[in-house]
Amino acid sequence: RINGQRLWDSLMEMAAIGATDKGGCNRQALTDLDKQGRDLFVQWCEDAGCSVTFDEMGNIFAQRAGKNPDLPPVLTGSHLDTQPTGGKFDGVYGVLAGLEVVRSLNDAGVETEAPLEVAVWTNEEGARFSPAMIGSGVWSGEFDLDYAYARTDKEGKTFGEELARIGYQGKTPAKPRPLAAAFEVHIEQGPILEAEEKTIGVLSGVQGMNWYDLTLIGQPCHAGPSLMETRRDPFMGLHRILDALYKLAAEHAPWARATFGDIRVEPGSRNTVPEKLVLAVDLRHPDQNILDAMDQRFREIAARVADDIGLEHQIRDEWRSPAVAFDANCVEAVRSSVAELGYSNKEMVSGAGHDSVYISRVAPTSMIFVPCEKGLSHNEAENAEPEDLEAGANVLLHAMLKMANK
Amino acid sequence: RINGQRLWDSLMEMAAIGATDKGGCNRQALTDLDKQGRDLFVQWCEDAGCSVTFDEMGNIFAQRAGKNPDLPPVLTGSHLDTQPTGGKFDGVYGVLAGLEVVRSLNDAGVETEAPLEVAVWTNEEGARFSPAMIGSGVWSGEFDLDYAYARTDKEGKTFGEELARIGYQGKTPAKPRPLAAAFEVHIEQGPILEAEEKTIGVLSGVQGMNWYDLTLIGQPCHAGPSLMETRRDPFMGLHRILDALYKLAAEHAPWARATFGDIRVEPGSRNTVPEKLVLAVDLRHPDQNILDAMDQRFREIAARVADDIGLEHQIRDEWRSPAVAFDANCVEAVRSSVAELGYSNKEMVSGAGHDSVYISRVAPTSMIFVPCEKGLSHNEAENAEPEDLEAGANVLLHAMLKMANK
Ligand SMILES: NC(=O)NCCC(=O)O
Ligand SMILES: NC(=O)NCCC(=O)O
């Protein structure tokens, strides 16, 4: 069993880096604070006897040697970057639970057959640099390195520049190596486990998600003398498209999601009808067929509304992450570990994307969830119970041991 | 009669300062380009024998002496600042038509009894620093100087700093002096004169306008796992409020206006339901009673929608400019000048705010409109016919002479 207190203390120490007034964390990818968080993690891993490397994407790998160095390692990990108004647990918990597994095995003097590895994947959130999960995405072959390096934040700084600047641009190519298995433990970020009073989520997969930029282009004109009837006003299109997309999600309730996290306006002058609105659209569904149908409907809705109002419109596909089914053996390793430990549990699908989505393309993978308070995440008030975090790390320990000693 | 070619040439020379790719002008208030535009105007006025001063708000006054220096001057003027995607005529025409009146009188060797003045009012557009018409507003006592100096642009720079930086912060107090009359000639910025094939608009007043910041505050949460039904999503409120306000404007068609020129989102992350949206709302109506009723309905709509969705909301009154009726004698001076000159014309109310709104509080005031192409303004494609601009300046000349020689 792992040491729940030490895990909690490490979580709180990490949370101090980028701590916000409202009790959350703002430690966005490739900022100075991200560097501080990485440095602390690397220090902890070296103290725990791991050998630490990082690759050209800044993904960090801390390896605890196994008895048989020829066996492919069993990997766990998640991310240390946060949302701008993020919490203390999203991602960080998965990284530090992995470290806690290593520390607990050290305490108990247990050696595994295969090596164990704890990974930190760069820019999982997609908040500073879109898309999400780009560190694991390049590593697993979904994105090119050049594409990743060229991604820009809102100030126009590139991923590549910022990675070099914080000193985490390694020389090792970001590409897959043979792995015996990969696990990731994470807070649920939704309300189901808490509502059903279950301690552990046994994940069978991840829902599909599409990101778009919808641009509506109208005709700027003066807020006073211009007649309402002849305006080509992007806001007149916006409200109808929002309405239709919320209705589309409701048609596919309870699983469909429609989210609008960001909007940009040009020229952005109070007494001028805007020329342009750019809306970030995020559509999700666990069933890839339904998500594809939603994608189709979205395009129809935008085209029809734009046409009605005389707007030009563009839909740019920013990111697509199809629905994922995890590896049956890894899922079974989690299921049997939960049973051994006697935790209440539920089989479920993740609503959020995780690095495991991309890792699952190149290695047998699965995930473990623990409840979080009121299902809140991407919120500074994000919270989780120490006992649940401990339980999740215990499941991780058991599952990793099963796969490392096979 | 004035010299239409010289007026046009001066307009084009001024338009080169801040010229945009699309044929418009971006010469926002208190920028380096605004300074260049002011410098050029001051040079032209000095060349025309005027004495030039500017006050603590950066309002510029170019005076052409009269025979009787004890008589209160007849003033004309408008503004040189533009929208970020503005045109070549909005404001600038009123300033340069005033200069053309002076030049034409010089050419003809005509002296007036009372002095004439051409004014440039600072930051009329309200695009860089809200509210609009703040230079004439302070001068006429609507706003305090401290309030004006503390206004910030989107980068947080203050009006006061920027005014000092460009060297147009004078020592003369910005406060009214006795004026015999004040006139302003402007492009209509709407489609009516063009549609009705009239050359001159004889203005009886200006419609009422209210600016607000509507803030909707929800609960940030994750775009994936968070259930749609329990979200407190500001965008869910936004689309309903937009819909209701467009319907409200339609109820009071054809004169009511509802415009949303700007929107801000926090935290602005693609996969996070926003915490906050701030929408710039501009409501207008020529009848102050109807505008007051619209104001009331706006508050009810926002409160009801916010309540339905569980959002907090705030409405901040950014600016109120009640409906204005111009001075009967000044309107009559314009009307009779138009008749003398034989131009087709229409009596109308301005849909846009103008410096004359504030000047009319402290001096007898009225305005003259000329058509603009397709009614387009606050748009780089803004355009007007040289003959119409010439006609408007002729009307201005006649009206000013009437009042200066009474
Ligand atoms: N776990 C998490 O916050 N992932 C970011 C990717 C997503 O938007 O689901
Ligand atoms: N004329 C003009 O563009 N004025 C700005 C004030 C307004 O929004 O009406």
Give the arrangement of secondary structure elements.
Two copies of one chain form a homodimer.
Chain A (H helix, E strand, L loop, with lengths): L3 H12 L16 H16 L3 E4 L5 E5 L9 E5 L13 H17 L7 E5 L13 H6 L5 H6 L8 H7 L15 E7 L4 H4 L4 E7 L1 E10 L16 H18 L5 E3 L3 E4 L9 E10 L2 H22 L2 E10 L2 E2 L2 H14 L3 E6 L4 H5 L5 E6 L15 H19 L2
Parallel strand pairs in A: 3-4, 3-5, 5-14, 6-13
Antiparallel strand pairs in A: 1-2, 2-4, 6-12, 6-14, 7-10, 7-11, 8-10, 9-10
The complex binds N-(aminocarbonyl)-beta-alanine (2 copies).
Features:
homodimer, 406 residues, alpha/beta, 9-stranded mixed beta sheet, 5-stranded antiparallel beta sheet, 12 helices, 14 strands, globular, binds N-(aminocarbonyl)-beta-alanine, Bact_exopeptidase_dim_dom (chains A, B)
What this model shows, in words?
Chains A, B: It comes from Microbulbifer bruguierae. The structure is a homodimer of 406-residue chains. Helices cover 36% and strands 21% of the residues of chain A. Chain A has twelve helices and 14 strands. Chain A has helices spanning 4-15, 32-47, 92-108, 134-139, 145-150, 159-165, 192-195, 234-251, 288-309, 328-341, 355-359, 386-404; strands at 51-54, 60-64, 74-78, 116-120, 181-187, 200-206, 208-217, 257-259, 263-266, 276-285, 312-321, 324-325, 345-350, 365-370. In chain A, strands 1, 2, 3, 4, 5, 6, 12, 13 and 14 form a nine-stranded mixed β-sheet that branches. In chain A, α1 crosses α12 and α10 packs across α12. Chain A is globular, with a radius of gyration of 22 Å. Chains A and B meet through α8, β8, β9 and β10 of A and α8, β8, β9 and β10 of B. The structure holds N-(aminocarbonyl)-beta-alanine (2 copies). One N-(aminocarbonyl)-beta-alanine (URP) sits between chains A (90, 124-126, 132, 352-354) and B (222-224, 271).
